[in-house]
Amino acid sequence: AIYSISFNHSSSMFAVGTSLGCSVCNACPLKLILSIPFQGSLGICEALDDISLIAIVGGGIQPAFPRDEVKLWSQESQTIVRSIKLSSAIKCVRLMKDMLFIGVSNAVLVYKRNEVKMLEMIPTVPNINDSMAVAFSGGEIIFACPDATPAHVFVKCFTEE
């Protein structure tokens, strides 16, 4: 079964979370680049552009990992190099440059990829559609999600350091 499909920020590749693990494919020409088997399924699978790092969360009928924990897989070391355990189920994840955005039911948590401390918690309305968008432009990471005020959008630019 397929549980998630997501393009990287340049749309040159896409990652697929399945009942068998994670696959990353080149978009054009279509070609499998990477396949990582896990004992269980992945509900979320997000890859950086160079596929050096993949964010994964358990999901499906027999999750490989808890649904409240993001794991960062290093392709170089072929291991999980970081885990972030939360108190509620993770709805969506976006990985961009050196930042990690984690959506839970009423908030988005923002982390620097290599730091333990959370940078920011952005409150949202109940995010039932797992809505969150991240783009990179001109040295800035532009982030958007539902605001805490109904029918409003929260937008923020994070400047690369």
Please trace the helix and strand order, writing H or E for each element.
EEEEEEEEEEEEEEE
Number of strands: 15
Measured as a percent range, the helix fraction is under 10%
Strand content: over 45%
Rg over alpha carbons: 15 Å
Overall pLDDT metric: 93
What shape does the CA trace take?
globular
Q: Total helix count?
A: 0
Largest sheet: 4 strands, antiparallel
- What are the segments in which pLDDT stays under 50 over at least 5 consecutive residues? none
Give the class from helix and strand content and strand pairing.
mainly beta
The N- to C-terminal Cα distance equals: 40 Å
Biggest sheet strand line-up: 1-2-3-4
Supply database-style keywords.
161 residues; mainly beta; four-stranded antiparallel sheet
How would you characterize this protein structure?
By secondary structure, this protein is an all-beta fold. The protein has no helices and 15 strands. The protein has strands at 2-7, 13-18, 21-26, 31-37, 42-47, 53-58, 69-74, 79-85, 92-96, 99-104, 107-112, 118-123, 133-137, 140-146, 153-159. The strands form 4 sheets. A 4-stranded antiparallel sheet has the order 1-2-3-4, with no helix packed on it. The radius of gyration is 15 Å and the shape is globular. The mean pLDDT is 93.
